[in-house]
């Protein structure tokens, strides 16, 4: 009886180990949508909860394009220099977060051609994104986890 129990336990653990998690990949139609807009561009893909992010370099700058699960591009983000932020945004950051250093800045264009700007700073040891509209007016903060 003891051997039967050991055999059953071994069989169950073997079956559990044999099961593999489904490997998620970026669908071909999403990759094709990216290649159509950015031909011959080297890309690194990230799978996100609401779609896919293509990270690449454009004109010497870090960039990313976000796609929904149907393959529609929803936004493009391009790295910019800190002095390319709208003046109003720079003033807001200096006044509201005087001791914070800006880590990264970006210009984001969504699928409706609406432009926003992003400035990343550290708050309480976590990276957070300050979002501004095209004129530099503060919109919201996306706190890091």
UniProtKB/TrEMBL annotation:
SUPFAM superfamilies: BT0923-like. Gene3D superfamilies: 3.10.450.360. It holds the Pfam family PepSY_like. Residues 52-139 form the Putative beta-lactamase-inhibitor-like PepSY-like domain. This is Putative beta-lactamase-inhibitor-like, PepSY-like. It comes from Flavobacterium micromati.
